[in-house]
Amino acid sequence: MVRVRTTAIQKIVSNGGDILPDIEDYSAVARRYRDIFVAAVDDQRGAGRLSEARLQLVRRFAAAAVLAERMEARLMCGEEIDITAHALLASTLVRIAQCIGVDRPAQNTTPSLRDYLAAKTR
């Protein structure tokens, strides 16, 4: 995963309490939340490009995603889940994703002429 270089996001990620106050950053759930949050912020080209409102939406997206994953894990273990609650979470994720944008900007992976020629001579 590409790490975001924005100072604000580095602070948020390195200080787990800044993501969610009073939460130990060592639990699997907290780590998963942070991973989703960081990936979603990275998809938005970094925290420096996000308004506070959009940053809050990314936080809600990460929380809903973690809840959905936990429900799905219970389902895979053979437990029954509330399908209505799962459908509501899925719908909520779609709506939040539409608000924050779900398209990651394409990166140019075309090699430069120098890189292309260097690779050909190897």
Task: Write the topology of this structure.
Layout: H1 7-14, H2 16-19, H3 28-43, H4 52-76, H5 83-100, H6 113-120
Helix pairs in contact: 3-4, 4-5
In short:
With 122 residues, the protein is mainly alpha-helical. 65% of the residues lie in helices and 0% in strands. The longest helix has 25 residues, at 52-76.
Looking at this protein, list some descriptive labels:
122 residues; mainly alpha; 6 helices; 65% helix; disordered N terminus
**Roughly how many Å apart are the termini?**
29 Å
Biggest sheet: strands, sense, closure?
none
| Count of helix runs | 6
Q: What is the N-to-C succession of helices and strands?
A: HHHHHH
Q: Which structural category do the helix and sheet elements fall into?
A: mainly alpha
Number of strands: 0
Output the radius of gyration.
18 Å
- The global form is elongated
Architecture overview:
Helix 3 crosses helix 4 (52-76). The protein has 122 residues and is an all-alpha fold. The protein has helices at residues 7-14, 16-19, 28-43, 52-76, 83-100, 113-120. It is built from six helices and no strands. It has one domain (7-120). It starts with 6 loop residues before the first helix and ends with a helix. The model is unreliable at 1-7 and 13-17 (pLDDT under 50). Helix content is 65%, strand content 0%.
